[in-house]
């Protein structure tokens, strides 16, 4: 059992809880309070996890569908019955408020249950072999088989549900999986392992190996027995993985600086509320977070007034308080980086409408306008509580400016005009367009991923299972009577 108040937490190596003499401190970013320590795994530990996963793969692939379904549902039941404990862990080690953390824990339950449902639907099709001349008398089909050992590298911003999005589908599809969680937030991933242990998952199918990326990451990424890397993180790290991985499958979600479009016919109140929430959820540390808003000129002044007023109502404070809307960033280093990007933009001519102040790891919800396109914060993913407002003359300009960056994960469009909605849906270069919702909207069952520098492949349980399996063809040549 894991208790965030107890110093010394083991990692989950092939079904066994183990510790090591080298440790990593896990601290609350709000006050730098020591929560616990976890092992700083070595290269040898990762090699052991991979060797054990070879056995785990045979076990997992031979489990019947009903066994996989039963384990997944029992794991979901376990999390649901300990939901507040999971939420406190998420909030304590990361940036989320307790209310945000409860939502993540609840979504994790849904993700695992959805994985159980989708385990029943891993099917193939019959193939008409006699479509090819000379192939008469043949009948067959294809099925889908596990891809093998999966290496999952997960980020700090959703330390439970994003791990579940890799572990749930892996188990549903009969794979073995090794998770390397974010160094800053390993406890939630370990608690997910706790749930699967309680659910009766056989040893060796799952490992959660804690440690530094430079110590164990390359071993996981480059090992030839690891057949797929599922990575969520930054572009630079993603590019490094593609250069090292070798001949294996890659699935990557690499973030964005998501745009939103607000047209003159939109519901102003709904657009403001949705985009404020989308910009500042989890202190803006959200790959789907609203970063750029393009607002039609005729309503721009009123929109800015309402948006700034709503932003200034956001309450910062203790993450575990029910009254707090936004917590700190994951570290003071990250808050300093965000602060420097904002200062650069202001020096280049941007107007600071509200926010812009830092206190340790906390950074106020910040709204900028007139940000020059060449500024870092206009081009890159800020991953912090900052949103940029721009006036545009029409939807054509809004789409062009939305597409002007090298990211393309999701976009939000606010309009009551059906033609404009379809125009934006067709022309925005992104993986998902949310009409009358911010770019932050997502459910765990939809295909999720981006284009351009935002990634490769798609997550969402059904679609992850497709990525984690391969088609296998079976053909019978029948003797003619």
UniProtKB/TrEMBL annotation:
Keyword entries, A-Z: Oxidoreductase
SUPFAM superfamilies from the UniProt entry: ALDH-like (SSF53720)
A family per Pfam: Aldedh
EC number from the UniProt entry: 1.2.1.97
Listed GO MF terms: lactaldehyde dehydrogenase (NAD+) activity
Gene3D superfamilies linked: Aldehyde Dehydrogenase, Chain A, domain 1, Aldehyde Dehydrogenase, Chain A, domain 2
CDD domains associated with the record: ALDH_y4uC (cd07149)
Catalytic activity, reaction form: (2S)-3-sulfolactaldehyde + NAD(+) + H2O = (2S)-3-sulfolactate + NADH + 2 H(+)
Protein name in UniProt: 3-sulfolactaldehyde dehydrogenase
Organism annotation: Halalkalibacter okhensis
